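Design request, tokens follow.
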């Protein structure tokens, strides 16, 4: 028997309007998803070619969170 998707959705704990760390209201979820997939996919490239890759990963993560979340 095939599995069916339930219609009940859970709200993530970080959702909410106006709270620190919430996703920006003007964020395009489609563009944000592609940004995150691109960032993750490029990680192997950075790991292979950059000696300071460990420090850069933290900076990229911080920059991404600053971009997609409200202050």
């Amino acid at each position: 028997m095939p599995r069916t998707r339930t219609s009940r959705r859970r709200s993530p704990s970080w959702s909410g309007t106006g709270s620190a760390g919430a996703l920006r209201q003007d964020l395009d979820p489609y563009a944000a998803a592609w940004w995150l997939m691109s960032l993750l996919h490029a990680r192997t490239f950075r790991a292979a070619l950059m000696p300071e890759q460990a420090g850069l990963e933290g900076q990229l993560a911080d920059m991404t969170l600053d971009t997609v979340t409200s202050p």
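Comment from the thread starter after seeing the answer: thanks! The mean pLDDT is 75.
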